[in-house]
From TrEMBL:
Alphabetized Pfam families for the sequence: PilM_2 (PF11104)
Organism annotation: Ottowia thiooxydans
Transmembrane spans: none
PANTHER family per record: CELL DIVISION PROTEIN FTSA-RELATED, ETHANOLAMINE UTILIZATION PROTEIN EUTJ
Protein name: Type IV pilus assembly protein PilM
Xref: SUPFAM superfamilies: Actin-like ATPase domain
InterPro entries: ATPase_NBD, FtsA/MreB, PilM
Superkingdom per UniProt: Bacteria
Signal peptide coordinates: none
Length: 358
């Protein structure tokens, strides 16, 4: 330990808020001097249908009110927040640059390269980059990841945070944040997950995303139009509920006695088939022909029988993601409720982890 480390400033408290079409999720983390993470707070607030559509905020005031309720529900006192944009509104590109450039030289090079890939004037976009590490294909050079989005998309997220009384300090990409949180889980796999090919599925309300990963490298990414909304629609058709009633009963677990046999089982089978189909696209689009693990996240990931159905259809071991695995659990967290909802918090957890990477 050096004298400087004894007096170093700890990162200011910062919450991660993930906004999806169906809900907003909040996570607050802290760590001790040994870098052990503690889950201090987590909360979920449902959003109305159509408030968020294809990443666009259609009902700004309603979403702001929901964020205020979310913050109050969580009990956090933190004001700084990390939020994220969906990958569909972000252009990402990995480029190779010479090592040893100054920060200003790198900025100029990135802007020059970005002009080739971004179909807008640079005045119209928010642009950022990070050094990913030494290039695997060009000795002595470095890999740099560029991310750019239209300024209005970034300003929409900033406006939400500020209108809810928060201070936005990080605007990330949802898929980047989920990979950051998943990295902790992968490290806990046998052999630290080294060289393992991981299929990370996030099942959202209307869209499910597959990210295939190996050693922190993204091998493949694909969205499919299938998610938890299909289960809601099956409830509506089977029992005559309104969409709002079906969502409420699904969240509360107040479902008819025959729900498991006539609704849940067929839905789980359909979802497992969609996951199998997504993996086949991965195998036909890349040199890979198998994965070592399938990891499931999202609000429907913990459905009874889903991991078994996925293993049956794909032949690969399947696990539900708990992004808080291995963390200390704070006194303000209702542990049983958190464990039920944990797969929903993957992206929010990754955003909260950004507190320690700034």
């Amino acid at each position: 330990m050096t004298i400087a480390s004894m007096f170093s400033r700890r990162p200011a408290p910062m919450i991660g808020i993930d906004i999806s079409p169906s809900s907003a999720k909040l996570v607050e983390l802290s760590n001790d001097r040994s870098s052990t993470l503690t889950l201090d707070r987590c909360a979920i607030e449902p959003l109305g249908r159509g408030w968020i559509n294809d990443g666009n905020i259609e009902k700004f005031d309603e979403v702001v009110d929901a964020l205020r309720r979310l913050v109050t529900k969580s009990g956090t006192k933190a004001k700084q927040v990390a939020m994220a944009l969906p990958a569909s509104v972000v252009i990402s590109k990995r480029i190779i640059l010479p090592s040893g450039l100054s920060e200003r030289e790198m900025e100029l090079q990135v802007e020059s390269e970005a002009n080739q890939y971004i179909p807008f004037s640079l005045d119209e976009v928010s642009l950022d980059f990070c050094v990913a590490g030494p290039s695997a294909t060009s000795a002595g050079d470095i890999d740099v990841v560029i991310a750019a989005s239209r300024k209005e998309k970034v300003e929409d997220r900033q406006g939400l945070a500020e209108s809810a009384g928060l201070t936005p300090v990080v605007i990330d990409v949802e898929s980047y944040a989920s990979r950051l949180a998943a990295g902790r889980i992968i490290e806990r796999l046998p052999g630290g997950g080294e060289d393992a090919v991981i299929a990370l599925f996030e099942v959202g309300a209307t869209t499910s995303t597959l990210q295939a990963l190996r050693n922190d490298e993204l091998l493949y990414e694909r969205d499919q139009i299938f998610g938890g909304a299909q289960l809601t629609q099956m409830l509506v058709r089977q029992y005559g509920f309104t969409l709002e009633e079906a969502e409420a009963k699904k969240r509360a677990g107040e479902l008819p006695d025959d729900f498991g046999a006539v609704v849940l089982r067929p839905y789980v089978e359909s979802l497992a088939q969609e996951i199998e189909r997504a993996l086949k696209f991965f195998f036909t689009s890349t040199p890979h022909h198998k994965v070592d693990y399938v990891l499931l996240a999202g609000g429907t990931a913990g459905l009874l029988g889903l991991t078994e159905a996925v293993t049956k259809h794909t032949t690969f071991p399947c696990h539900v993601v708990n992004p808080f695995e291995g963390m200390e659990i704070g006194r303000a967290v209702r542990e049983k409720k958190m464990l039920r909802e944990a797969p929903s918090y993957l992206t929010a957890c990754g955003l909260a982890m950004r507190r320690f990477l700034r």
